[in-house]
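Question thread 4412

I'm putting together a teaching handout and wanted feedback from people who do this every day. The idea is simple: show students a protein as raw sequence, then show them the structure tokens that encode its fold, then repeat with a second protein so they can compare. Below is the first pair exactly as I plan to print it.
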Amino acid sequence: MSALKTNLLPIEVENIERYTNIAFCQPSFYTRTAWNRAKKCVNKLIELGLAEPYDYGRGKGKYTLTPKGDEIGLGNVYKELVKIDFILTIRK
């Protein structure tokens, strides 16, 4: 295990839900740290085909759900990350 990996802690499932929801809101409402964690979650959702980048304008939301993601619903889309054992890590 590399030295870089030992400084990381996994984030709980509840926080994955929170950060996933943050990604679909306005970035200005959150700290840079929270927004960067949210971007990691939504980037994985983009890979899964559940979300896509969509710029609603300056200071507005930056992502939207795809039709596949709409079927699941915004409140449940984070569960897809949990199903694939997505691990979001933070530094100690």
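The second pair follows. I'd like the answer to focus on this one:
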Amino acid sequence: MIVLPESGWLPSGIAGVTANLPESKKVQWEAQAGKLAFKYMRAEFHLAEIRRCYQVAISEHSAHISQLTERDNVCSSYNGAQADSIFFHLEAFLEAARAAHDSTLASLHSAKVLLQDPGISLSQYCKKPVPESAPAIDGILRTFWSSCGERTKAYRDSLVHYASLSGLVYQTAINMQLENGSWQIRLFLPDNPESNSYGAFTFNKRIEAVALCDKILSETRTLLAGVLNACLAKWGAEPSPASFTIKGVVIGE
């Protein structure tokens, strides 16, 4: 089994496939795989920004709350300057992760791992019957959809189409908790985003936004590694340190 290197795993995998493709297929492959890489990197960026906003919010909150008595303020809601940025990057993270999941199909089709047109939606792809002589990646895609993709889509769809992040439910959802002398920030998301209704949302499972995004990003990374491994194996290729360029931006070393 091909194992992608830890450093630069995305560009090295993409470049490795490119090196073994016929010239007529190289441009289409790099275009599709490059889009996949950018969408994954967008998700990484927005999660990093949520973490940064968390730290700034804690600093702001600590400075403000120090003027009050600790006894009366061990737990409070945060609605400071970082709140809108946190919500912006949360929605953008889910959008980028969801887009990366869908983009795996175009990359696999471009590399001829999936021979028939798989469509543009992983959700729709996984609703179809398993084709005869399906490649191993088909099972990986379907398992991923059940474990992560469907949940990601539910949160993304809820926040983008149904639940306004500027509304009262979310604007009062960022919690500050004093623990062992330091403030901790948490943004709890609904247990049931597919309900698409403020009245139906429950928060019993205390699903924290950054923890959820961490899990989504980790599982997405595993999926993308599987996709690149399938493409490398299809063309008898190995990861390459070479870089590639898309719209003037160099990816890789």
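Top answer:
Good format. For the second protein you could add a caption like this: Helices lie at 9-20, 23-65, 83-110, 122-127, 136-162, 168-171, 209-234. The chain has one domain: 9-69+83-163+213-251.
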